[in-house]
Specification:
Number of helices: 3
Radius of gyration: 13 Å
CATH architecture: 2-Layer Sandwich
Shape: globular
Structural class: alpha+beta
Strand order of the largest sheet: 1-3-2
Helix content: 25-40%
CATH class: Alpha Beta
Largest sheet: 3 strands, antiparallel
Number of domains: 1
CATH topology: Alpha-Beta Plaits
Length: 92
Amino acid sequence: MESADKLISVYKACGQPEAEIVKGRLNVENIPAVLKYESLGSVYGLTIDGLGQVEVLVPLKYAEQAREILDHDTDLKPDCPDATEPEQNSEL
């Protein structure tokens, strides 16, 4: 996988619905995004110990643009206690 094709985490959501909204927001800006999550959390609806967390990943070449868009969108701020801002070097 070339470095430009690496996926970078730009957002951690509290659950699948929030992550889908963030993914849609990025798609509107022509930024491809995929979701990464533990299947156990979505199957059983668990939201404790990070099981409900969903990471939004984008290709490295879109990461900076995606972060800028999400930083300026005040409606897209995680409000669950387990969600944190993604690490700057979080890669897949």
